[in-house]
Amino acid sequence: MATAASDFSDKVRTDALQLVTMSAIPGAVAALARLNIFQALGRAGDDAVLTVRELAALALPGKAINITYLARLLRLMAAKKVLREVVAVGDDGDVTERRYALEPIGRFLVDEAFLPLLLTFQSSGFLQTWEHIHESVLDDSIAPFTRAHGVNAWEYFQQNPELGVTFNKAMAGHSEVYMRAVLDVYRGFEHVNVLVDVGGGFGSSLRLITAKYPHVKGINFDLPQVIGACPPLPAVEHVSGDMFKSVPSGDAIFMKHILHDWDDESCITILKNCHQALPEYGKVIAVNHVLPEIIHFEGGDHMAVQGDIHMLAFNPSGACERTERDFRKLGLAAGFKQVQTICTVDNLLAVTEFHKTV
Asked: Quick check: pTM over 0.70?
């Protein structure tokens, strides 16, 4: 009789197999999103538990589809707790019916918080980038995305406007979800009268901040081509410019996911311009993913490290996530006297304050 492998070896072997085959997961999620499956479940209501055929009819009315193929994709989503599978079993013990409902994770794919981000990263243009990661290790002047397409991501979006629209939706949705979470735990806007959002895009963060703190006047600061497309917002003034040259003045300056786009030298330039624009009591409020000094395999550690590789893949050379120690060094080099992490969201996103005075 053959000797069974140890439980430990079984788990390690399975984990290794999952690692090398895990591309099936985002691929399947993207396929179901393109088939309108998550949106259909969302429209069906919170209590909806649908058969594969019912879901197909709701998501793709009038279209001939392979029910067996769809069922296979749905089962993977159930295995990953994106969907909940409810089975009916006959007297003989055989499964007679399978129904599916949204799990909490799946609901994020309905409200379009993360769905456009998924479709961006699963687009052919972004997938091709991974083939060039190793080249940047051998030659750090190589940016993988540029290597794959001959242009950087922003120029690629201009050449592929449909993907650019999806990406902009992704950034807005991501910002909406996490800014609401930040505002639940961070109280540093209470004594701010004029808040400048550097790299504020279309003003989605300021919209949420000024709604919660009506006394705050917002200044949304970004490049001219961005500001030119901004919708009017209550209590928000849109101002165009270049953060590498100067930044508008305010009691505080807000930056969300800006510093990770740049190398250290560029970050110090941006922070110096912020320092110059602030009064003596002023502060920069920066929201970023923060890398752990030591990975603890729980909380948001793995997501921060994963996000860092996305920066390596899709952004120009020098873009990266940073540790708290890294942010402190940047702040001190730019002239700030105190740099302190105030709070975190999901053990992943940190709110860091840079103060001109101690």
From this structure: yes
pLDDT at 275: 98
> What is the domain class of 115-355 according to CATH?
alpha beta
Q: What is the pLDDT of residues 209-259, one digit of tens each?
A: 999 999 999 999 999 988 998 899 999 999 999 999 999 999 999 999 999
Is 260 one of the annotated active-site residues of the chain?
yes
Question: What are the b/e assignments for 148-186, b being 16+ CB within 10 Å?
Answer: bbeeebeebbeebeebbebbbbbbbbbbbebbeebbeeb
Find tokens 């930040």 and name the residue.
182
Give the residue extent of every domain in the chain: 7-107, 115-355
**Catalytic, out of 149, 238, 260, 275:** 260
Tokens of 273: 């311009």
Is the pLDDT at 5 greater than 60? The verdict is no
Q: Which fold has domain 7-107?
A: Arc Repressor Mutant, subunit A (1.10.10)
